[in-house]
Amino acid sequence: MLRRALLLFAVPISALLAPVYALAQAWPAQSVKMIVGFPPGGTTDVIARLVSQELTERLGKSFVIENRPGASGTIATGALARSPADGYTLLMVSSTHGTAPSLYASLPYEEKDLAPVGLIASTPYALVVHPTLPATNMATLIAYLKHNPGKVEYASSSPGTAQHLAGEMLKRSAGVNIIHVPYKGTGALMPDVLAGRVPMLFENVAVITPHIKKGSLLPIAVTSAKRTPLLPEVPTLRESSVGLDEFEVLGWFVVYAPAKTPPEVVRLLNVEMNRLIAKPAIVQRLQELGAEPLGGAPEQVGAFVKGEQDKWGRVIRDAGITPQ
Hints:
The protein is an alpha/beta fold. It is built from twelve helices and ten strands. It is globular and about 65 Å long.
């Protein structure tokens, strides 16, 4: 469904380049700043640096990363919203941008302050269990959970994260009663999950794959619509034949500019981003991160983000999660 909604342009890219590359003589005339709302080294930061390096090579001016971590990326988004709309400040957001409107009572920006530029990639999560849990696939796991309501816990790095909300979606979709145990970050939760004290976890495939390969955790399913190359033997939740045909939880990465950025600049950047994520070397690097390149026109990117915000808003309300 996501892939159908975000297919790359049906017309040749060359047909789109003529009007926007007339702008290239004047823009960029200086370096471009890309803000990242998370610390260096995380997936959002790594993907932002990958994109920035390619744009630097293509457009002849430096695209420089500025990390402004805090409040699930909303501090950085607020900084972008206050930036001049001249194309020289961009922002890489993660899928926390899809949950922030429902998780925070107030935000330092409004969606109308932002202009979607490009959808770079998505990353699935894997549902894993400790080997001591008597389940080897989704059917046996759900059967076990239904026979033990309120007795099985699942971990997340904090309330409102994709890890938490995936568990809430599973509760609603499969009709099971599992208990959420929040931690302060993935590093804090892993000792308890690996020891089996909290035996279930939804986690980004790139983060959890090493533990799966070691046999420390058992993969049950991935949350994307199709299998991931990192774990090709692990089925999707949709393949489980237990009534989860619409289950999909993805991490994703989108580039924004301030609203009122010249449309020619937005279109130029969008064309270049769609071009770079089609390069074999970039595709390979993204796959090493567990990510799948996506793409699409700015209008499609905006519609995608709106759909994610609506979906997670319903999950958050149904779960009774109170805005902070």
